[in-house]
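Pair request: fold both.
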Amino acid sequence: MNSNNGYKIRCLSCGTRNRIPSNKAGDVARCGSCKSILNTEVISATQPVVVTDNDFEQQVVKSPLPVLVFFWAPWCSSCQAVTPIIDEFASEARGHVKVCKVNVDASPMTASKFNILSVPNLLVFDNGQFKESLFGLTQKHDIMMKLAPYI
């Protein structure tokens, strides 16, 4: 994913998508519509964010970027196989997609809320809403294609 044209992040106050130039990624930014301060911290994340029942709302629903949530379990061999793909995608999608990991054993309420019956399971969120899912072993290309409409 190319960041030469900057990044697009959503204002959490009014929902407007704002473009942040690459060279201004660390600066304080304001929404072009409502002038609220934008959460530009998410632009710099190069690794998936570990999310729990306690912070799912804050980390996923209130994210200014589209979010890929990886539901996994430590005992799952398929999850172990997908983890390097998710980590690589998080690094490459930096500033365009926020990548989160939810351990279903440690966060059973969140897994139950989204009816996660098997792992690995990937959910896509945009503007705070669940959009679609990917099940089972997934390749990076499939993830990129699934997220393309939200970037």
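--- second member of the pair ---
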Amino acid sequence: MADPEHEEDKKILIEILMKIERQLYFIVFEVGNNPRGEPRFRKEFVELFPGPWNEVAASFQGARTMIEKDEINWQYVEGLGMAGSMLKWKKSFLDETIKSKAVGRFLKIANSILGSLSKAIPALEIVKEYKDHVEAAMRYVRG
């Protein structure tokens, strides 16, 4: 059991990972075109998605399980700015970005969060790499 000061952090981290997973899934699988009606991905990459989505989803789940079971070093996570008021601020920023439907901004924020958390939760490195490849395959990343 995490010490009481991290119970809220656990819930927020799990929620953040769920939101990033859901939004990434939406970008890859449910949004075929960008706002201008153009294909979301460059034509040479369209067939590469869903690619390894099952592995990515399993990594998200593994990371959430590690957080839930307190299999992470909270002191290290705090040092990454992924606890307390910094974590709440990052979650608020993520929430507003998702509401605005700004794909490019979402990908940048997801990169920041995943980049930090992957140092404490190695399973998230797969997720970050997948997100990076999605971003690289997009025709236009704006917002």
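Observation on the second member. The mean pLDDT is 87.
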